[in-house]
Automatic annotation (TrEMBL):
Residue runs in coiled coils: none
NCBIfam families linked to this entry: cmk
Name of this protein: Cytidylate kinase
Upper taxonomic lineage: Bacteria, Pseudomonadati, Pseudomonadota, Alphaproteobacteria, Hyphomicrobiales
Locations listed in the record: Cytoplasm
Family matches, as Pfam families: Cytidylate_kin
GO cellular component: a single term: cytoplasm
TM ranges: none
Any GO BP annotation: pyrimidine nucleotide metabolic process
Homology family: Belongs to the cytidylate kinase family. Type 1 subfamily.
Enzyme class (EC, first level): transferase
């Protein structure tokens, strides 16, 4: 069984995908980590002429050891990730990694932006998570606060909106709900309620 979980930044899709993976005993891949790892690898080249070429190279050379979330959570890395994510050759280089993950294990939960549209259009269940931008910024702020990192709410909110706009406008992105995706609005839901709602959708389909 392949479950695709797509949605915008800080929509709760990662937590939800992790919860579904635990519930159905499937491996989980947070595909945002791939883009974040590429973004981190080219951080020093931002704004330079070789940024794109370096990003393509980093995507082609990506190694599973590069995907440690601990080094990739920063807001800055998320923003860089969305900049490398518009490069078609980067997406192409990361495609096979994601496909292999989905197929190798005979089932998986993948979360990202284009899982239901590009990576696994044949997924058994597709969830598209939405949540109000304000609620998403609040969640992200709480996550950073829990790690003892001070963040300015307004800055966070603006960055989330900028990243959404870049992701939606990405001509190579595939970031829209697939025709057969189930929309789940988590604005008013806590983690447990969101997971219950997602399990209900999956159980009704499989
Ligand atoms: O999900 P996360 O916030 O970690 O993703 C970071 C960035 O990586 C996104 O803003 C998006 O630009 C890009 N991304 C993507 N396709 C995916 C996953 C992430 O373009 N499947």
């Amino acid at each position: 069984m392949i479950i695709a979980v797509d949605g915008p930044a800080a929509s709760g899709k990662g937590t939800l995908a992790g919860g579904l993976a635990g519930y159905y005993r499937l491996p989980h891949l947070d595909t945002g980590l791939l883009y974040r790892a590429v973004g981190r690898a080219v951080e020093a080249h931002e704004g330079q002429a070789d940024f794109e070429a370096r990003a393509i190279e980093a995507a082609r050379d990506l190694h599973p050891d590069d995907l440690d979330p601990e080094f990739l959570v920063a807001q800055k890395i998320g923003n860089l990730a969305s900049k490398v994510a518009v490069i078609g050759e980067v997406r192409k280089a990361l495609f096979q990694y994601q496909r292999n993950f989905a197929l190798r294990h005979g089932g998986a939960v993948l979360d990202g932006r284009d899982i239901g549209t590009v990576i696994c259009p044949e997924a058994d269940v597709k969830l598209f998570i939405i949540a109000d931008a304000h609620a998403r910024a609040e969640r992200r702020a709480r996550q950073f606060a829990a790690r003892g990192q001070a963040v300015d709410f307004e800055t966070l909110y603006t960055q989330i909106e900028e990243r959404d706009a870049r992701d939606r406008a990405n001509p190579n992105g595939g970031f829209y709900p697939a025709a057969d995706a189930h929309l789940l609005d988590t604005t008013q839901l806590d983690i447990e309620a969101a997971l219950r709602a997602a399990v209900a959708i999956v159980d009704a389909v499989i």
